[in-house]
Amino acid sequence: MDTKILHPSSHPIPFSGSRYGVTEKKKAELDALTIKVMDAQYEVNQYQAIVISLTNKVTNFQGYLALADATRTETLNNKNLAKQLIQSADGLRSDSKIAFGEMEAANTKTVTLSAEIKLVIDVLIYTAEMLNKLATSVTRKKALNPLISDELVSLIATAGADANSAVALSLVALKSSFVAESSNIESVGAIGLAYTQAESLYKTMTDGAKSLRQLFADAYTRAKDNYKRMEDALAIATAQLNEATANLNSAQVKLKSLQSGLAAANAAALA
What is the mean pLDDT of residues 149-174? Predict the structure, then answer.
């Protein structure tokens, strides 16, 4: 015989049948709540795993970002140091160029002075010879003619001696000029070499794609780009972690609510 379960308000059901129906209904409700709790727990576990994974990811990117920042700072310092070295090389090049020009000019003046001293010496030698000849002639004439003034003879002799002294002093001056000229030539050579080396160093540091300036600038650019990538990656990972944490919090609230409901239902079923 078929048995139909009807609503109690329309068809009275025997007490034992009603009790059975209520028990099955509560059991079904408890089973449904239990499944919901299990599903909620599974969801919480999933979000917890995601949060743990993203936390590790954020921590790693924070380390990468710190390293990228250190590299960026180091390459910037290297770039600034290269800039200072280039300025120093440029100053050395400029100074040595000026010094080279001044030494060349000084050497030219020394050569000119030596030539002028040589002309003066030639004139002095000629003058001394003339005075010596004149002194000899006057002395002879004095011997023949006592009326010639002794003062004149003495004056001519003194002039000849002075002329000879002037020649000697001029020779000393010419020797000094030659020494200065030799020193200038050595200095011009040394400064010229220094200028050539400074020019070569400056070009090495500034000219072309492989110059030190360009290499340090490229290294800094790469470091900045890498830092920006790490910064963006950290921002994305942090946003993902925040979202996952919010989802985990919601899932935990939902789980606690379902657990409380299940506990209350179990307590009611046992009452």
Answer: 75
Angle (CA) 167 172 177, round 5°:
120
DSSP SS3 for 115: helix
CA angle 179, 181, 185 (to 5 degrees): 115
Domain ranges within the chain, ordered by starting residue: 20-270
Q: Which of 165, 151, 168, 157 is nearest to 133 (CA)?
A: 157
Pairs from 98-101 (Cβ < 8 Å, separation ≥ 24): 99/191, 99/195, 100/188, 100/191, 100/192, 100/194, 100/195
Q: Which CATH class is domain 20-270?
A: mainly alpha
> What is the distance between the alpha carbons of residues 83 and 81, in angstroms, rounded to a whole number?
5
Section 9-13 average pLDDT: 40
Rounded Cα–Cα distance for residues 191 and 188 (Å):
5
What tokens were used for 54?
């993203």
For 67-95, the pLDDT digits (tens) are 999 999 999 999 999 999 999 989 988 88
